[in-house]
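Final report, closing paragraph on structural work. Over the funding period we assembled a curated collection of sequence-structure pairs, and we close with a single example.
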Amino acid sequence: MEGKQTIMRRSALAAVAAIGSASLLLSACSKADDNSDSNGKKSAEANAATKGVVNASTQKGGTVTYEYSDVPDSFDPGNTYYAYMYNLSRLYARPLMTFQPGAGEEGNTLVPDLAASKGVPSDGGKTWTYKLRSGLKYQDGTPITSKDVKYAVERSNFARDVLSLGPNYFQQFLEGGDKYKGPYKDKNPKGLKSIETPDDTTVVFHLNRAFQEFDYLVATPQTAPVPQAKDKGVDYVKNIVSSGSYKFESYEEGKQVVLVRNENWDPKTDPLRKQYPDKIVVKLKVNAETIDQDVQAGTAIDLGGTGVQAATQAKVVNDVSLKANTDNTYGGRLVYMAINNQVAPFDKVECRKAVQYAVDKVSVQTALGGPIRGDIATTVLPPDIPGYEKTDVYATPGNKGDVAKAKEQLKACGKTSINTNISARSDRPQEIDAATAIIAALKKVGINASLKQYPSGKYFTDQVGVPSFNKKQNIGLHMMQWGADWPSGYGFLQQILNGDAIGTSGNTNLSYLDDKQINETLGKAIATEDAAERNSLYAQIDKRAMDQAALVPLTYFKVLLYRPANFTNLVSSAAFSGQYDYLNIGTTKK
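Its predicted structure, as stored:
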């Protein structure tokens, strides 16, 4: 899933000037290890939120404010695919399963949410049965039933012409999913036959093949219940019916969202949520530097969870007391550039390999913020995802690119030069800086790329996630960042490498790779019961993708989060790509 940042373009040189050298960043990290300020006073510990709860408190009251530099794809739990929205949506949308609020790897623990227990598999993993907790209610006091869960999955996965932003796993794996047209077009009151609801508390999923990690799949917000009578399609986002601890007080599209306590939420049915603040405010389209200032002032939390900007980073890592209030962690994410296999001449593997050898990864790493923001990557799977095996298919001296090898591959492709475009998100300054560094490296070998910028909120729906758009605009290269949908090789690889994930819009497989071997191995892996054998298959898929030069791994993403002093119960959760877990954050101010 995708992980985000104001409309600002800067050069890679500007970023280097702002953050200093890699050695400076590393020395700054070690300088703060003594965990004391200039007066010798002990302060908060760096990386404390990756190890436990920071500012633990049961205080109720006050307002928690989130700020974001753009707009999310959607607040609709069935129509979103950003990690921070998966995280935030749990406040008002309870899926069947979810991740336990906890620091670091503890946050990867899968626990029942709307369901009373984990799924019960049968038929070798092709059938999964869930029982709902008793006493569940919506914000208006009406009961939540298994039929609402069934309908939520149907609307979010099968009405792709209406709701195209989330993943389509259920469409791929449910029996008859390739023929069902979704609840807006199919008028059969029974809906999709492969989701059964024998009573109001039981939901049964019948799959077309074994899926051994299905509990992870039902942890997506697509299983959060939606009452059919209240669904307005794409406009449901304006009047979402809450099943969680908070409900919408107001929704101003593109501006602000306000959540307040849901009085019909019953803590007896929910061991995970505590309902601490009175109000939760989400402010949109806030300048990225302003967000940094507000976070440091303790008045806001960065919703996107992608960390501080370059200038703030330079300030923070070189001040002992400020550095002690940060959390720097891996988040199961890869920063990469997808090479579009459908846009000529990158439909030829030799042309894609020319790009692989041409990229100077050190300059890209520097543009992104240096080693503190990620180690140089050489594989599709990050080191903290099961299935990772260290390898470097396109090794270059010092990771700075190899002009001779790049030109050799270009010649094998029948080209001496290529003219193309590279896409990046306009509200992510560091992504633009990285793209600028790549453009400079490609130019040295005869690949002339021009930068095309698009806003995050429409990046997948209207631009790079639309095959016809890329061909028309000659966009052969796409800046991308990806985090695992769940902590396994399949949860990471499926939506960015499987040909079945490609549609007419909303694509996250930006390489537009449809490789038979990869598709079949992914299917074999998810049907395999033995975890070690599954992981071995994920490693094979990684290698195949690199042999096909489907994407250029840039860095294994690390986030530098600044911990606001005025917020309580802060934990950096591995399940949500290094963000703070939003489920039970509170405030010290009533």
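The first strand starts at residue 63 and ends at 67. DSSP finds 18 helices and 19 strands in the chain. We thank the funder for supporting this effort.
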